[in-house]
Amino acid sequence: MEREVGVNNVKIAVIGGGLVGALNACFFAKRGFQVELYESREDIRRATVVKGRSINLALSHRGRQALKAVGMEDKIVSKGIPMHARMIHSPSGKRSPIPYGKKGQYILSVDRANLNKELLSAAETYPSAKMNFEHKLIDWNLESGSMTFLRKDGSTKVTTCDLTVGCDGAFSAVRKRFMRQSRFNYSQTYIPHGYMELTIPPKHGDFAMEPNFLHIWPRNTFMMIALPNLDMTFTCTLFMPFEDFEKITTGDEVLEFFQRYFPDSIPLFGGEALKQDYFRLPAQAMVSVKCSPYHIGTTCVLMGDAAHAVVPFYGQGMNAGFEDCIVFDELLDQYNCDFSICLPEFTRLRVPDDHAIADLAMYNYIEMRAHVNSKWFLFRKHLDMILHYMMPNTIIPLYTMVTFTRTRYHEIVKRWQWQNKVINRGLFLCGVSLVVGSTYLLIKHPPCTPSIQLDRLWNWALSLK
Questions:
Q1: CA-closest candidate to residue 119, choices 261, 325, 342, 259
Q2: How large a percentage of the chain has pLDDT more than 90?
Q3: Given 70, 158, 167, 344, which residue has the most CB atoms within 10 angstroms?
Q4: How many Cβ atoms sit within 10 Å of the Cβ of residue 370?
């Protein structure tokens, strides 16, 4: 209680009313801080048309832990659909599941808009929290802490605060102020692939495919995925190079493209519906943002996409953003809400982790669109799970560490690289031992047709390599 009394007069401005901003408002208000949330768009709970991305989100352990800390986990989980495995769709229509982890481990398909609404409503229940929608940040004086917001009616609002928390997305207005600081590192990378969302409607009042899977159509240079929704639809996302999107200009070309690469999906969409859905919106770009540090002095800190926008291929963008919130909350506990310690410590902890998950997200796109077609990849997946079962504390699959633990991302990368080295060397030594042993037996006990046997052995050894 003493800690809460000490923070009653501290005013925190959360810039951005998206997922991370709304969750942060809950965390700060729960502690008793005076919280004002500012969002440039209208209140999503009252909007007739929700603008922005609607890519389904995959909620996993890190995000759930953050929601649990503010008492929201059960409510959100009850509105999600468990996905226990990837379901790989081959060009021939064959479906093959690849489990995400051990039995009982799953990720949740959750609706972005509904999650955002729930978090805003939760933040609003705290008496110390105030929501300000249609307030666009247009000026911010770092020295005085003064911020100027433009309202919908053209008027302005000037306010001050003790701490500014920038949660305003990949194109953050708060981060622009950081750009004027010396020794602030920043980079953004647009990948050459875009994404387009399509919808698979229900069939006979039920899901058109198995609902408890993340469906993937991997096609090496591009792919399509589908996640289930509570209304029994699937949100499909086609990820493809922009130049390939630009080649498809007519409805007939859409059908021809899908007939060639995703033939089993056409009956699910419906031919005519697919042609209309495809041209509803143009392909959207995806950007990866890295920066450091995440703070300025004791008065401002960046979180979520404002600090580390990542491409969506590991399903960790939201989870990493939510983990920002709980890490900062844990630091407030550890250092008794001393911003002069918490802010630089937050930067020290999160920058290497968020840069690591940005790189892993890039890697996972290659895995999802291409590696899952490889027999070697499938073999390694099964081998990793067997070794994990035999040595649960020594060998842990990469996906398990990222998705089902809160192990720091950069430590996961180091451990994954070490595990790969050990397992690959072990396989190589096993292969060499087998070849040497077989060769010795052939020399010791030569068959009637040694040349044929040796040729087969040599070809087998080459295939192992």
A1: 325
A2: 70
A3: 167
A4: 16
DSSP string of 368-386, one letter each residue: HHTGGG-HHHHHHHHHHHH
Structure tokens at 292: 């450091």
Distance in angstroms (rounded) separating the CA atoms of residues 65 and 74: 11
Asked if residues 157 and 134 have their Cβ atoms less than 8 Å apart, the reply is: no
Prediction pTM value: 0.87
Query: Any idea which residue has 């802010």 for tokens?
Result: 343
Write a three-state SS string for 189-234: EEEEEEEEEEEECCECCECCCCCCEEEEEECCCCEEEEEECCCCCE
Nearest-CA neighbor of 152 among 38, 14, 42, 36?
42
Bridge-based pairing of strands 234-241 and 107-110 is unpaired
Hey, how many other C-beta atoms are within 10 angstroms of the C-beta on 87?
A: 20
Cβ pair 167, 303 in contact under 8 A: yes
Instruction: Report the b/e string of 394-410 with b at 16+ CB within 10 A.
Output: ebbbbbbbbbbeeebbb
Asked if pLDDT for residue 141 goes beyond 90, the answer is no
Q: What are phi and psi of 362, to 5 degrees?
A: -65, -45
What is the pairing mode between strands 81-83 and 107-110? Answer: antiparallel
CA distance 69 to 82: 21
